[in-house]
Specification:
Elements: H1 5-10, H2 14-22, H3 29-41, H4 46-55, E1 62-64, E2 72-73, E3 77-79, H5 80-86, E4 96-100, E5 108-111, H6 112-116, E6 121-123, E7 128-132, E8 137-141, E9 147-153, E10 156-161, E11 166-168, E12 174-176, E13 189-193, H7 194-200, E14 205-207, H8 224-228, E15 242-248, E16 251-256, H9 257-260, E17 265-270, E18 273-280, E19 285-293, E20 304-306, E21 315-317, E22 323-324, E23 330-332, E24 340-342, E25 346-349, H10 350-356, E26 361-362, E27 391-402, E28 407-412, E29 417-422, E30 428-431, E31 434-435, E32 446-453, E33 459-467, H11 468-474, E34 478-484, E35 489-493, E36 502-505, E37 511-513, E38 525-533, E39 536-543, H12 545-566, E40 568-576, E41 581-586, H13 588-594, E42 602-607, E43 611-623, E44 626-632, H14 635-638, E45 646-651
Parallel strand pairs: 2-6, 16-26, 30-33, 36-39, 37-39
Antiparallel strand pairs: 1-9, 3-14, 4-5, 4-13, 6-7, 7-8, 9-10, 10-11, 11-12, 15-16, 15-25, 17-18, 18-19, 19-24, 20-21, 21-22, 22-23, 27-28, 27-32, 28-29, 30-31, 32-33, 34-35, 34-38, 35-36, 38-39, 40-41, 40-45, 41-44, 42-43, 42-45, 43-44
Helix pairs in contact: 2-4
Length: about 650
């Protein structure tokens, strides 16, 4: 009996596998899938996996046609708003464009009909832009004047560097020439419409559309040379099915656009990377991002979901309620101006993606993850816009609280002294990974504080107060470096030792909520609540992941139960007596539920001054991390409603 391919590979070193692969005459897709799984099981390095993805096809077919398309080198620059005027009679709102969404001048756009149809490769100081009409994709790579069109290979366009190296235009992997095995650096781009881009980013870069750039219609039939190089069909999807694909490490995944059309936000994990796939229907644009911001780490991760309150920014994160565009830009909310970390997803036809990544997986609608069963979690945010300019972020401990006087006395580490601070109905209290109240905090408890200032660095009021468990939930638990059970001493470090060690006393009052009890070991990750007296810290309780999640779920369930009984808590921020309307700001702890209110919904508002009043929702929109609700309210009740009045309201 002949040995199976997997058995052969299992006994070989990666270098030998590469040697065999380079000589394979042909491999069917089912066998190829088996081979790739074996490679991953053998922990073959990423470079070798890329070699497989680029070279291991059923049959490698290539056609050289370097003179077929002329390359455009470093065209003259302009701006979108100016070129819209110049070619106003010819540019259409639905003209497809390659838009680069980061970098100089906030990005730019290249219309297909004027540039990418006649010139399939543009070598420019902004980037190398490529368009494969037959495979249905555009890509951007790091700037260079040295690339040109070369031909097709396995149905995918090939570009050539002046040193003779040949690269796949889709993957950017060099498969022949002096730099074989290297990969071009991709630039963040999307495919969108000119009208949308012009309205959203009128001052971004464009090329000057001189008369010599005559618009050409997009191709309606496939190039015969391109088609002749295609490998055998992978029948898992129709050949021309549009997908967006992503390759991370040794794993590749394709997301059919037909699935995205009904699931505009897909949260997934590829190659160990947490990703979010977005679909913007008005421009038929797909994009993939990491579940985090590009240059910020608070919040550490973002959970995006569909929310159409702002039609041009229909994605909202659950942590801050900021609204995001398909370009990965926050345009409303606390994170306004921030950007998501772009990942090199490629919107293309199925045959092209699978030609480059034969072992790719296909995302199914059945895999859609719902949030219905997830616990509602509190998140603190940091930023540098508007009121956040004057927010001080510091650790410390609670010295005293006066709930009746709305005062907290906190020792703050940033200035090493006690501060007496006001808290308001809008102050956020983060407790046990959920929401709480001032009553949940005890004297000497270690806290994290966001405080507003008077403009002279003097702390005035508490914007948010969090216990240790909440802060660890927002980042990561501690890891044990030392534990002396008999001496009652525990040393914690950050997961990657990015912060100073935390030295704790462990006493008779410490609660061990772990599966191992107090039999702690070096390397264990634990959540910890602690008290402080000066610089000395003592552990109140130590929780493993299971105990912490149970604690957080209990708190969130209690809050949900309370909301059903008593309604949402809000503060009156504006009264428009002439129009019988009032604006209320829902506290952030309840904002998750307030987002589901709709215009014309009937609600009951209750306050100490006016009692219960029936009102109608006129408008509901995000106002940074909270929700602002405009209510139409009967005239008799207006007399007793003033800005600052605290109220509760419930849907009827």
């Amino acid at each position: 009996m002949k040995p199976r391919p997997t058995q052969i590979l299992a006994g070989l070193k990666p270098a030998k596998i590469a040697e065999i692969v380079s000589d394979l005459p042909g491999v069917s897709p089912p066998v190829l899938l088996t081979v790739m799984k074996t490679i991953r099981a053998l922990a073959v390095p990423v470079g070798l996996a890329l070699l497989f993805s680029a070279n291991l096809h059923a049959q490698v077919k290539q056609i050289e046609r370097p003179a077929f398309f002329k390359t455009l080198i470093n065209p003259t620059c302009s701006h979108c708003i100016d070129e819209a005027r110049r070619r106003s009679r010819e540019l259409r709102d639905d003209d497809r464009v390659l838009a680069w969404i980061r970098g100089q001048y906030d990005g730019g756009a290249v219309p297909f009909r004027f540039f990418l149809v006649p010139y399939r490769v543009i070598s420019d100081s902004y980037g190398v832009w490529v368009y494969d009409a037959d495979a249905g994709f555009v890509r951007g790579y790091e700037p260079s004047y040295d690339f040109s069109f070369h031909g097709w290979r396995n149905g995918v366009m090939v570009i050539q560097h002046k040193d003779g190296t040949l690269f796949s235009a889709l993957s950017g992997v060099a498969f022949d020439g002096p730099r074989k095995g290297t990969t071009l650096k991709p630039l963040p781009i999307i495919e969108t419409d000119w009208g949308y881009w012009l309205k959203a980013y009128p001052k971004t870069v464009a090329y000057e559309m001189f008369e010599k750039y005559a618009p050409l219609a997009l191709p309606t039939s496939a190039n015969a040379d391109s088609v002749s190089t295609r490998p055998p069909e992978d029948k898992r999807l129709p050949s021309d099915e549009p997908v967006i694909g992503l390759a991370v490490g040794t794993q590749a995944r394709a997301y059919p656009l037909s699935v995205l059309a009904t699931n505009q936000v897909i949260r997934d994990r590829v190659g160990g990377q947490e990703v979010v796939v977005l679909w913007y229907a008005p421009t038929k644009t797909a994009a993939i991002y990491a579940a985090r911001m590009e240059n910020e780490n608070v919040p550490e991760r973002l959970k995006l979901e569909k929310n159409a309150q702002i039609p041009t920014a229909p994605f909202m994160d659950k942590e801050t309620f900021s609204h995001w565009t398909v370009e990965g830009r926050a345009v409303e909310g606390p994170l306004k101006g921030k950007t998501l970390a772009w990942l090199p997803g490629v919107q293309c036809k199925w045959f092209a993606w699978v030609a480059e990544y034969p072992a790719t997986e296909i995302y199914s609608a059945a895999e859609k993850r719902t949030e219905a069963s997830e616990a509602m979690t509190a998140k603190l945010i940091a930023g540098d816009r508007l009121d956040w300019d004057k927010v001080v972020k510091t650790t410390g401990y609670l010295v005293k609280q006066d709930g009746a006087g709305h005062l907290l006395t906190v020792f703050t580490d940033h200035d090493k002294k006690e501060q007496q601070l006001l808290f308001t109905p809008q102050t956020e209290f983060h407790v046990e990974g959920g929401w709480g109240s001032v009553e949940d905090f005890k004297r000497q408890q270690s806290v994290y504080l966001l405080a507003t200032t008077d403009g002279k660095s003097n702390l005035v009021a508490v914007h948010a107060l969090a216990d240790d468990l909440s802060m660890q939930a927002m980042s990561r638990p501690y890891v044990i470096r030392e534990y002396e059970k008999t001496g009652g001493r525990l040393v914690f470090v950050d997961e990657k030792e990015r912060k100073a060690p935390v030295d704790l006393k462990v006493g008779a009052e410490t609660k061990f909520l772990t599966a191992q009890g107090d039999a702690l070991q070096t390397g264990m990750a634990l959540y910890c609540n602690m008290t402080r007296t000066g610089s000395e810290r003592e552990a109140i309780e130590l929780l493993d992941a299971a105990a912490f999640e149970a604690r957080r779920n209990q708190r969130c369930q209690r809050q949900q139960s309370d909301l059903k009984k008593s309604g949402l808590t809000a503060t009156v921020v504006e009264v428009d007596a002439a129009n019988h309307r009032t604006d209320v700001m829902v506290r952030r702890a309840d904002a998750w539920y307030a987002r589901f209110l709709k215009v014309n919904d009937s609600v009951t508002v209750e306050s100490h001054a006016s009692g219960k009043t029936s009102c109608t929702v006129v408008a509901a929109h995000p106002d940074y991390s909270r929700i602002r609700i405009r209510l139409e309210i009967p005239n008799p009740a207006l007399a007793s409603i003033h800005p600052g009045t605290r109220c509760r309201f419930s849907p009827k």
